[in-house]
Amino acid sequence: MPSSYRSFRKSVPWLILFLETVFIILFYFSFQRYDALIRNISYTDFQDVNNMVIFGFGFFLAFLKRYSFSSTGFNLLIIVLGVQCSILMEGLLVLLQEPNKHDPKIITMAAVSMTAVAISSGAVLGKTNPLQLIVMTVVEIIIFHVSRWINKQFLQVPDNISMKHVHLFGAYFGLAVSSCFAEPSPRSEKNASTPKSDLLSMLGTLFLWVFCPSFNSVLADGDKTKAIYNTYFALAVSAVTAFTLSVLTTKDGKFRMTHVHSAALAGGVTVCYTAESIDYPWIAMILGLLASVITILGSFCLQRCLNPALKIHDASGVHFTFGLPGLLGAVAQVVLLVIKKWTVLPSLGYMVMIYIGAFCLTISVALITGFITGLILNFKLLKIIPVSKYFEDQFYWEFPHLAVGF
């Protein structure tokens, strides 16, 4: 390895071993037998969610031409570490709230919560080293579960509703962390994609698209079949709208892969909040259409106006891919609640304030703690990457064929 590339031998392995030792000890005292944990668990649900976070986000983030090794490899690393931390946090919070209760879906919910970390890592893609990513993962998982606990304890928000804020939390936590890092040069040739990397990233989009109905049904507290249907309808319309708007908004009237890459998923993110409560498919279809529109228009406005003004570099567009559709979904949940419960006026105002307060609290906690986490990640102890080495696999991975065509 050239001398200009620093080694992480003295930091990353020891941090991983330390965390694993802590996890093993905590698992020993927290989960002594499997009996209470594996009863009534649906492996199909867990498998689909696991495929989403491993395959889906692993490929989804692999669009940079010189960062595909790190996108897929580091995604696997933070997911497998984060799931263990998330299970411990889930178990701790269940123990604090209901000491005699065991959640049979604890491993599935732990995998769902890793969606937040995967989304946040997209905002800082290429700018953080493995040491920083591991620290960010542990901190974010702890804070996300604490945020859910606050929602349940003080706002009486059900567990499944607080878990649906996973897209919002991940997007705004990641943006807050990203704001603490130096912006890359707009002329950097490494901060770009190639047809091959775009194709690999589109494969991740397809994985996320296919498994999204199952993901939303896992979070549903009511009719899971209705959640699957509504999610599929919203996804279908958002994908169709993405192709339509792509042609209409490009100068030469051609499809743009980045539009389809982001907007095709928007319907699934938006309808996540209301998937089991929508009684008519056309409502889900309208939400899918609005989600796709807000994603494509949001990408145009945010990248050209808001992000430069705030000096935020959103590496993979998590704000308009997950943040804005998630915000639309949270608002749609409140609107549909008002329409359904308008006859119950005494309690309606209270319920509306609770739901609005829940997602506002989630965003606020994500932004504040994300900014603090970003400041921590910039400590010299965590081996900050120079801007010149952003988006570069060679900084972390061996390339035996380096002399040929890298």
SSE blueprint and pairings:
Elements (H helix, E strand, L loop, with lengths): L11 H19 L4 H4 L4 H18 L7 H30 L8 H18 L6 H26 L3 H5 L2 H13 L16 H25 L4 H26 L7 H7 L2 H6 L9 H30 L7 H24 L3 H33 L29
Helix pairs in contact: 1-4, 3-4, 3-5, 3-9, 4-5, 4-6, 5-6, 5-8, 6-15, 8-14, 8-15, 9-10, 9-11, 10-11, 10-13, 13-14, 14-15
Question: Key features?
Answer:
single chain; 406 residues; mainly alpha; 15 helices; 70% helix; 0% strand
Question: In words, what does this structure look like?
Answer:
70% of the residues lie in helices and 0% in strands. It is built from 15 helices and no strands. It is globular, with a radius of gyration of 21 Å. The model has no long low-confidence stretch (mean pLDDT 87). Helix 9 packs antiparallel against helix 10. The two termini are 14 Å apart. With 406 residues, it is mainly α.
Helix fraction, binned, reads 55-70%
**End-to-end C-alpha gap:** 14 Å
Number of DSSP-assigned strands: 0
- Give the biggest beta sheet: none
- Structural class, judged by helices and strands? mainly alpha
> In sequence order, what are the helices and strands, one letter per element?
HHHHHHHHHHHHHHH
User: What is the helix tally?
Assistant: 15
Are there runs of 5+ residues with pLDDT below 50, and where?
A: none
Give the C-alpha Rg: 21 Å
Estimate the strand proportion.
Answer: under 5%
The mean pLDDT is 87
Morphology call: globular
